């Protein structure tokens, strides 16, 4: 998925500044952002107050939207460097195409994982014949310096490990929880889990105390560590937790995201994760000149032009504002 902000700012993220070594309960509301012509998302990361959770550096939550008789998601070809995209659907279908020649229809409960590495382009659109609802999350993971120039790669995993206990079905999207490991390739210690809670469920999840965590509420009425988390918001939890108490008043879907705090400083602008403003400018120029990123074949339309770079110089910033 693309950041379609027409005036994106260059920002610097990462490092341990702003990482809470002890548990916190920091509720972050989503910011509505238009994505293409027909989709509005709630941007939860980066946001005012928080820029990263482990290596997770971007979170968009969209839906549930009624797209019957409408185009649904329509995101033209656009470029990425230095990151992984994690596509996770709760309802609906999205067709992924990329410059490697990959063509895949994404569906709920199946992991679409794209490693951009040194350069890739992709598009995401609802198929012409699609279901009534569209609901999901698009997540980015920053690649560490040792791997950020790897060759691009597309993975699609139709079977993921599931943990079940009374009132909870937990699907491990990325990383590992309670001995269940996702087949998705990860380059830093992290975890992403889809939590499907039945009405009245009360459970405690095992956590890694050295990880920092956050929970996204996708639907329902749930409490996380005693804090009600409204739909479309993110509760940042800090580090130092051996476990996490969850309670659902109604059937609820949550996404647990966490990881080892990302020590490296990264620069984010538009769809690029880099280490300097010069690297961002070079990637933008390559995209506009038709170099480096390849071509997304099969998409009916023009690729997305890059916004103009801001006139202001790069401003070093930490993980939290």
Q: Would you give an account of this structure?
A:
By secondary structure, this protein is mainly beta. It has a single domain (20-259), classed as Jelly Rolls, CATH 2.60.120. Helix content is 4%, strand content 48%. The chain is built from 1 helix and 26 strands. The chain has one helix at residues 277-289, and strands at residues 11-14, 23-28, 31-35, 39-45, 56-66, 74-80, 83-91, 94-98, 103-106, 111-115, 120-125, 133-142, 153-157, 162-165, 168-177, 180-181, 190-197, 202-206, 212-219, 222-224, 227-229, 234-238, 243-248, 252-259, 265-269, 272-274. Strands 2, 14, 15, 16, 17, 19, 22 and 24 form an 8-stranded antiparallel β-sheet that branches. A 7-stranded antiparallel β-sheet has the order 3-4-5-12-7-10-13, with no helix packed on it. A hairpin with a 4-residue loop joins strand 8 (94-98) and strand 9. The chain is globular. It starts with 10 loop residues before the first strand and ends in a 32-residue tail after the last helix. The mean pLDDT is 92.
